[in-house]
Amino acid sequence: MQVTPLIWIITLAVTILFFVYEFFAHVRKPHEPSIGESARWSAFYIGLALLFGVGIGMVSGWNFGGEYFAGYLTEKALSIDNLFVFLIVMSGFAVPKKYQQKVLMIGIVIALILRGGFIAIGAGLIENFSWIFYIFGALLLFLAYKQAFGSHESNPADGKFMQLVRRVLPVTDEYHGDKLTVKKDGSRFFTPMMLTIIAIGFVDLIFAVDSIPAIYGLTNEAYIVFTANAFALMGLRQLFFLIGGLLERLVYLAQGLAVILAFIGVKLVFHALHVNELSFINGGQPLLWVPEIPIWFSLLFIGATIAVATVASLMKTRGDGDKNDRHTVEGGTVAAASGDGRETGSSSDDDMSPTARAQK
After folding, report:
1. Distance CA 79, CA 326 (A)
2. Alpha-carbon distances of 237 from 101, 113, 263, rounded to whole Å
3. Mean pLDDT, residues 289-316 taken together
4. Residue 100 contacts residue 27 (beta carbons within 8 Å)
């Protein structure tokens, strides 16, 4: 795939312009976006990402197009996992709803910058050291295990890193609008908004560790890696408000991502064996009998895994909701039957005020 410096410059410039537009058009004035606004912009960014992938396929060939779509799907799924952690962080810091857009916007920009750095480092390592695929593969297999069996209930807002930040930085107890710092009694203090952004940035750094090796397991093209990441992050802010309630219902998302990471980890190890140069493995010769997993299979596997995890999650939470409803009804029926129409010490409806009756 031939990508000239001019194409890189144009791509970076357009990406920056999109985020600048996002800030001035939607984020600068604090507000909680409506469902309609979030849905329209989410659809726009997803449609734009799909059109870009079609463009890559038409210009550079559908093998590269397939790599882009597989990478985009993987990064989008990992970004949704990011959203779940962002939700925990903002809940931990009690960020007011109308200021959450700004936190998300800054967090997404930080994520893109960090991933850009990791992409450049990864490209350099792959270019010079073929054995790096062994490390990437082992890392993804380890992260897949952690994703599937690790605890996801810890709050980054209360972690050791944020405790250290609180000890180092002078911080106010209350928010001052969406300001990051405020001056009190002649001294400059950081607000909880700044702490939230620091926590989001730290989370972004952690997620970049599995995000970049994962997509490099699907393509070696740095341009595809960057654009797939950029499009996965574009519209993430709107998606947060669109599926905020749905996030808690994706109970099998972690397991689905674990399967994807493990699959890509195995794919990386297979590729490492196929291009092996390590002297203590097969005398430094490639193991050509090891299969290379084709990109079309990767794309189907990733798409199917995301679909199964989503459907299974929704069925599970719906089933749990139906059980809770039945238990509530049955409990109410038992309580009514046990009352036998006798007073239980509470006032009757006739004795209540109109306000109290309405509340009841």
Report:
1. 35
2. 7, 16, 28
3. 89
4. no
